[in-house]
Amino acid sequence: MTKSASESGTYVESGEFKRDTNYITTRITADGRDGYPVEAGRYRLVAARACPWANRTLIVRRLLGLENALSLGLCGPTHDRSSWTFDLDPGGVDPVLGIAKLRDAYLARFPDYPRGITVPAIVDIATGQVVTNDYAQITLDFSTEWTALHRPGAPLLYPEPLREEIDEVSLAIFRDVNNGVYRCGFAGAQDAYDKAYDRLFSRLDQLGERLEGQRYLVGDTITEADVRLFTTLVRFDPVYHGHFKCNRSKLSEMPVLWAYARDLYQTPGFGDTIDFGQIKTHYYVVHTDINPTRIVPKGPDLSGWLTPHGRESLGGRPFGDGTPPPPPVPSEQVPTPVLP
């Protein structure tokens, strides 16, 4: 979800980092009330494995079994000054949309689009126009509006009786953790950084206390809240601890959160969407005002992600009355899930 329409490498702000949260709020719904009905094969999800906000859509799409209904285009881990780009595809062109830059899909619908070109985005294949980039709503709609296309055994990630609690927990996670690491990394003043740092680790401590006696954040199954926390935790030691100066503790030094994150990583649909190489390349290469040399560090050792976590002792049913998703389709497999 990087501000890729701005000058490449300019991310640190003069004081406190403030995220632009104005997105394209068009929704794809079962009744098509915004003009875009849920329809198998009509849309293409454009994401990047490097981006935590896009990573959410990859996980939820996998868990719900939407692969056959919603095709996937993957941008590379870096982008140019104007747009995320399809560097991973032959000729640098998305084979379905026929474009080299995601920006083309935005401009096809909004010729004077004034904001950053962000992932994730869902594109209407026939028109080549972006439908939405509202990442927070996309995954909720996958759970509530795309139900007719869910796989048999799809879990309930946003169960109605728990939605108020999921929303409350998710808001705190967004404010202090998901966005909190960026408020540390992009702070342009010491006091802004200090404030963000304290809020981040205070919230992580609270989440650790919450998870000490329960396997998942809300209820006894995986929900949307777990997806939202996981995508930040999995990037914490490779990127945020050093690159964003979130260095009070590594994730691997916070026992409860480390075990919780490993539990999710080893759950089908989570770790099999993670490409640590792309994650590190994105942050260390793109943020040149933080890392002007663009040197990507070799560490840390990531093999610990596959070690036993012991969270089964807390009970819980990862998929509730549902079942695990099948393995990723071959074209979407991560080449190296864990680096040595």
UniProtKB/TrEMBL annotation:
Residues annotated as domain GST C-terminal: 133-283
Q: Biased-composition ranges for Low complexity?
A: 331-340
> Region annotation Disordered: residue ranges?
306-340
Query: Record's InterPro entries?
Result: Glutathione-S-Trfase_C-like, Glutathione-S-Trfase_C_sf, Glutathione_S-Trfase, Glutathione_S-Trfase_N, GST_Omega-like_C, GST_Omega/GSH, Thioredoxin-like_sf
Query: PANTHER family, per this entry?
Result: GLUTATHIONE S-TRANSFERASE OMEGA-LIKE 1-RELATED, GLUTATHIONYL-HYDROQUINONE REDUCTASE
By what name is this protein known? Glutathione S-transferase C-terminal domain-containing protein
